[in-house]
Each structure stands twice: as structure tokens, then as C-alpha cells.
Amino acid sequence: MQDNRTAEGKGPVTYVKGGTLIDGTGRKPVLNPVIVLEGHRIKRVGTGESIKIPPRAQVIDCARCTLMPGLMDAHLHTMMFNCLSFHNYRVAQWEITPELQQMYGLFHAQLCFDMGFTTLRDLGLNSSRGLLTDHLCAVRDAINAGIVEGPRMLIGGFTVITGSHLDLIQPRAMQRLGFQTADGPWELRKLARKNLLSGCDIVKTCVTGGGGTDKEEPDVRNMTQEELDAVVDEAHAFHKAASVHCFTPQGQRMALKAGADTIEHMVFSDERTTDMIAEAGVWMTPTLLHRTDRAIQTRKDQGTSQFVLNKMKQIQPYCYETFQKMHKAGVNIALGTDMGYDPEMGANARELEIYVDLGMKPMEALLTATRNAARAIKMDNEIGTIETGKLADIIAVDGDPLKNIRCLQEKRNIRMVMKEGRIYADRRPGRNKNVVNVKPGEWKIIDYL
Ligand SMILES: [Zn+2]
Fold first, then answer.
1. Domain assignment present for 444
2. 442 CB contacts (<8 Å, ≥6 apart)?
3. Nearest Cα to Cα of residue 418 among 66, 69, 20
4. Predicted pLDDT of residue 301
5. Which of 33, 126, 429, 445 lies 20 to 30 angstroms, CA to CA, from 388?
6. Based on the domain organization, do 178 and 95 belong to the same domain?
7. How much distance in Å is there from the Cα of 404 to the middle of ligand 1?
8. Residue 319 alpha carbon to ligand 1 centre in Å
9. Domain shared by 306 and 351, yes or no
């Protein structure tokens, strides 16, 4: 035991060995890497040649695997699936209590964690009984307290106007309970404060229409500049970030003017506004996985109305084109899937394949899920790269994602998942530790019970 302790008593020293290191900085991969951990953090990064592993040292041998920073999804909704996956998901919103949905939320976070996503930014949700900010924060806190296993989570609190896109994800005629929406700058400030009191990390708002909702045009405006300014200012007053759902260039310019930290989705764009976003350095999440034919088919299978399916199909080419234009213009991009509607939690890495298909180099795509995602959520001093001093969020992948980005989509390839120096999933040869032990098909959506 003595050998594994440092003089400073910062925790045991462990050596992680692999075949290749992609450290998340964008630098070329390093062969034969050795990462020295001290407690929760990375103490040193080198190679088998530069770092001599003492005899009897504690070694995590990942053999020929690619070692990478834990992946991040900067836009998803862990508590949405099962509200919307019922056959007739509108009915489901009355059938499911927030309490049950909260348990599914934890389960969904764990599915992502098992696939190497060590950090999730959950951008909030509402329900038939009010906002789910408290429920989401409780999942985050239970994970942080160590009483359940899960990824690091950052939580958004919905702060939106009446009749906005994020209000309309609930049935139009449903009676709204609680203080779910607000109008005018002062009422919105109060709603933001309520979410902040619940403990949200991000104030999430909505400046335009969106997809996935009935009888709603995606390009309508959802807020005045005065209202948006108030919401963003309130977030910043409490040293929190403001995230803005946005489909149009007009909305993007409003978000820039208000000083938003992240703009969500890539749908409609124009050249001038795209250049302004690039210039400002504001982070955007593409959420393209949610735009694919596969996603549309899934929604169809779930009983989604033809209006919504048509709308999803109509915006699809704009989304792909906007991604390409924004990437070319040098807009800051962080991986975001908007997963939630689709019962495929854990398949977040499919988003990377779309980026590569649309022209991103594999290394750039990996950066969107590592260093750049960490920058987008303002945690790049702690996570996102494998460098001295960072928290030890490390995954071991059987395969080379630079040659085949799809290798990140198979659970059997994600051999090891470590968060803050602790191993949560270990599928190296001879081991079988998973975060989630039921297999797809062995667990049910609620209306099958
Ligand atoms: Zn979303």
C-alpha cells in the first residue's frame, strides 16, 4: 500500500497504459502512452519510454486500446424519453409522474455513461406537473454524492415565454400547473431565479420556434430582445451560463446581442450572421442526430403527427447545409445531440459520424466531444483533455476513431470508462463491469409494462 501513496497524500498513484493516446488537444496521437494518476487527477502524461513504472505499482493496462478523454454531450434531455416514447406520446405526458420519469432520467444518463460519455449537459425539461429542474438537479446531486453511479451532469432550467417552442412540447390544451412559463422581463427574471434556486447550472431559454411540435412554424420569434436580455443577464448575475434554443439568423443575432453563452441547434443561417457568430466565438451545438431520417422514422413509430414529420423532413437539408457553412466559417462547435425523443440513449457518438460525413476531419469531430465541449460548458480547466492537472476522465477504445469514427458506437469497443480516477465500466478481456447491466430489449418503455 505504501508504494501507491504519495508524500503529499493526494491519493493513490496509478499508471494507465494503452496502445495510442488521443489527448483531446488536437495534437497527433502518441504511441505507447502512460498516464500517471494521483487520486482523482492526472499527474503526468508520457510514454513507456519516458515514464518508468515502478515494480508493484498499480497499473491499469488497456493493452492496444486508444486512450481518450471522456466524451461529452453538450445538449441532451435525459428525462424526455418515456414522456414522448409512448404510443401516442401526448397521452404519455399525463400518464407518467415526474418521480418515475426521474428514475428513467438517471437510467438514461447511465446508458450514456456506459458508452464513454462522462459529462452530459442536460438542457432541462417541463412536465404535466411543472418544470423538472428539481428532479434533474437531484439526479446530478445523487451522482455527485456517490450514492448512484453516473456521469458528471450539468442541468438547465427552462426559462421560456408562454406559447414558446419549449412550452409547446407539451400538449397545447394541457392545463399548465405551477410556474412553468413567464412573460415580460421581470416575470422571466423571476422564473430564472426560481430555476437557479432549484440549483440549475444553466438558464435555458428559447428565442424561436422549433421542430417536433404540432401547429408551430419553426421560424417564429419567441421572445423580445428585452426579454432575452433579462434572462441572460439574470443567469450571468448568478455566474451561470445562458443557453438559447434558436432556429433563425434573427434569433442568433438576438442571442449574440444578449450575450448568450451557447446557441443551440443549427437550422437556418445566413452568411452575415454566421460570420458574426464565428467572430463572437459563441459555442453552437449542431444536434444533427435528431434531424436524420432514422430519427424521423423513430418519431413516426412513436405516433408523431404527420405535421411534425413533414416539418422535420423540411428542415433537414437546411440543418446539414448550415452545419457545413458554419464549420467552414470557423464557428465554435461542441457536440450536442438533442437526444431525448429517440429511445436510443447511449448512441450519442452517432452524432460524430454525421459531422465526419458532412466534411469534418475525424480529429476535429473528436474535439467537439472533448476539448471544445469542455470549453463550451466552461469546464476546460478541469476536463476535456488528458493533460497534467486535469480530472482523470479517461476512456479506452478498442479501435482507432481517427480511422473509423463509428468504432465509438459499439459498447464492446468502449473497454474502460473512468471518471475522476475511478473505473465505472471495465470491459477489458476477462472483465465484465458495466454501469447498466440490462441489455437493450430487456428493459421496457412504460406503456409496455
Ligand atoms: Zn433540446
1. no
2. none
3. 69
4. 81
5. 429
6. yes
7. 28
8. 15
9. yes
* 323 and 422 co-located in one domain: no
Helix (H) or strand (E) holding 416: strand 414-419
| The model's pTM | 0.95
What is the number of structural domains in the chain?
2
Question: 244 pLDDT band (50/70/90 cuts)?
Answer: very high
- Cell (9 digits) for 415: 473497454
From ligand 1's centre to the CA of 74, what distance in Å?
10
Rounded distance from Cα 286 to ligand 1 centre (Å): 11
> Can you give the pLDDT at residue 343?
64
307 and 417 belong to one structural domain: no
Ligand 1 centroid to residue 189 C-alpha, Å: 21
The length of the chain in residues reads: 449
CATH of the domain at 8: 2.30.40.10
pLDDT of 446: 63
Give the integer Cα–Cα distance in Å for 302 and 299: 5
DSSP letter (8 states) at residue 381: T
Cα–ligand 1 centroid distance for 87 (angstroms): 21
In the reported structure, the alpha carbon of residue 54 is separated from the centroid of ligand 1 by a whole-number distance in angstroms of 48
* Residue-range definition of the domain harbouring residue 256: 71-376
What count of other Cβ atoms lies within 10 Å of the Cβ of residue 401? 25
CA distance 198 to 356: 38
Rounded Cα–Cα distance for residues 370 and 436 (Å): 23
- Partner residues linked to 391 by β-bridges: 41
432 lies in some domain: no
